[in-house]
Amino acid sequence: MLQDILNDIGIVVFAASGALLGVRKDFDLWGILTVGALTGVGGGILRDVLLGITPPTSIQNWPPIVVATSASLVVFFFHPAFSELRRSVLLLDAIGMGLFATSGASIAIDQHASAFAATLIGLLTAVGGGILRDVLANEIPLLLQPADLYAVPALLGAGVVGVGATCSSAPTWIWLVVGTVVATGLRITGLVFGLQLPTAPSGLWRRH
C-alpha cells in the first residue's frame, strides 16, 4: 500500500515539475499536458520495461495517466501561485526523484530482482522522467548538470531500499521511508549548499 502511495505521489510531483517547465517555456495547453504526463510516467515505463512488465503499468491502466494529466492541469491553471518557477521545478523534482528511486527499487525487489539490480532500476526510475522532461523542453538534463547532485542521491536512496529490503528482516516500508528521506534530503541539501561532484581539471589536455 505504501509503495503504491509513494508511486502515485511521485507521479504527481514529477508531472507538476514537467508542467511547470512547460509553463516556463511558454508551451500551450497540449504541450504542458504532454510534457507533464510524460514526465510523470516516463520513469515508471522505463522501470517496467527493464523488469519485463509488459505492457507497462502506466499505460496498461488508466489511473497513472489520469493522475499525471490532472496534476498538469492544476499547474496550468494555478501556476501563478508558484512565486518562482525555477525553484518550484527543482523542489518538486527533488521530491519526485526520491519517491521514484525508492518505489522503483521496491517494485524491483517484489519482482525478485537482486539488491544490485533493484538499486540500478530505482536509479533509472528516478531519472527517467526528468531526462524525458528536460529533453522535450530542450534543457540540459539535471542528471548531467555539473552544479547539481542528482544521480548520487537517487542511487543512495534506491540502495537503502535494495540492500535493506533484501538483507534485513525489518518491514519494507521502513526502508521506503528512510530511502526517500535520504535521497530527497541529499538532493535538497546539495541545492541549498551548492554541493557538487568534481569536474575534470581544466587545461589538462593542453600542451604547449
Automatic annotation (TrEMBL):
Keywords, comma-separated and alphabetical: Cell membrane, Membrane, Transmembrane, Transmembrane helix
Designated name of the protein: Trimeric intracellular cation channel family protein
Segments traversing the membrane: 6-23, 30-50, 62-82, 89-109, 115-136, 148-166, 172-197
Major subcellular location class: membrane
Keyword Membrane: yes
Subcellular location: Cell membrane
Glycine transporter domain location: 6-79, 91-161
Similarity-based family: Belongs to the UPF0126 family.
Organism name: Gordonia hankookensis
Family matches, as Pfam families: Gly_transporter (PF03458)
Membrane topology: Multi-pass membrane protein
